[in-house]
Design goal:
The protein is mainly α. It has eight helices and three strands, in the order H-E-H-E-H-H-H-E-H-H-H.
C-alpha cells in the first residue's frame, strides 16, 4: 500500500496539486494545462497497477478539470505517448541485459532482444522526443486543435501501441509482459520507491 501511494503521489497527485496551486491565477487570465499521461492510461498492464491506475486517473482528471475550468478560459489536455527513446528508457533494458534476462551470443544481440520486447506493442519503433515536443508545442500555440479535455495519443505518439494491445489481448487491451523480465522491471521500480519520496498531500 505504501508503494502504491507513493507512485500515485508522484504520477497523479503531483498533477492535482500543481493544478490547485496554478488555477487561482489562471482563472483571472485564462491559460492552458497539459498533463502527461501514457498509453498505459488506455490499456491495462499486468504487474503495473499503481502506474496504470495513475495514468487512467490522469486522463479522467484532465476531462473533469476541463469541464470545470472552461468557464474561466482555461484549456486542459493530456498527452499519452508510448515508450520514448531516452536514456531513462534505455537504462532499465541495459540493467536487465546485464542480469542475463535476454538471449543472445553478444551484448548487442541481447540489447536488440530487450528493445524488441520493450517495443512489442508499438511496431518495434521508439517514439522520438521531437514528436512529443511537437505535440506539446502544437497544443500550446494552437496549431494542433483539440477540444478541451481531449487526450492526444495519435500514431506519432504511440506507433499503434493501443490498437496492437487491444488486437492481441481483446477489447480491454491488457498488455501482458513476460513474467521474469517484468519482475526485473518491478525490482527496479522498487529501488526508486525505496529512495523515500513522500506522497504529496491531497
Amino acid at each position: 500500500p505504501d508503494d502504491f501511494n507513493t507512485l500515485l503521489g508522484i504520477n497523479y497527485f503531483g498533477k492535482v496539486n500543481w493544478a490547485r496551486a496554478a488555477l487561482p491565477e489562471m482563472r483571472k487570465h485564462g491559460g492552458h494545462i497539459i498533463n502527461t499521461s501514457s498509453v498505459h492510461g488506455h490499456v491495462g498492464s499486468d504487474q503495473r497497477a499503481p502506474y496504470t491506475s495513475a495514468m487512467h486517473a490522469t486522463i479522467a482528471f484532465t476531462k473533469t478539470l476541463a469541464a470545470d475550468e472552461a468557464r474561466y478560459g482555461v484549456q486542459v489536455h493530456s498527452i499519452s505517448p508510448a515508450f520514448i527513446d531516452t536514456p531513462l528508457a534505455q537504462k532499465p533494458l541495459e540493467m536487465m541485459v546485464d542480469a542475463g534476462k535476454f538471449p543472445g551470443a553478444t551484448r548487442d544481440e541481447q540489447m536488440k532482444a530487450a528493445v524488441a520486447w520493450r517495443l512489442q506493442y508499438q511496431g518495434g519503433e521508439w517514439i522520438k522526443m521531437d514528436d512529443v515536443k511537437a505535440a506539446y508545442m502544437g497544443l500550446l500555440d494552437g496549431t494542433v486543435k483539440l477540444e478541451t479535455g481531449a487526450d492526444m495519443h495519435g500514431p506519432e505518439l504511440t506507433k499503434g501501441y493501443i490498437d496492437e494491445a487491444q488486437r492481441k489481448n481483446g477489447a480491454g487491451g491488457i498488455a501482458i509482459f513476460e513474467g521474469a523480465t517484468q519482475r526485473a522491471v518491478t525490482g527496479l521500480n522498487q529501488k526508486v520507491l525505496n529512495a523515500g519520496v513522500e506522497t504529496p498531500p491531497i
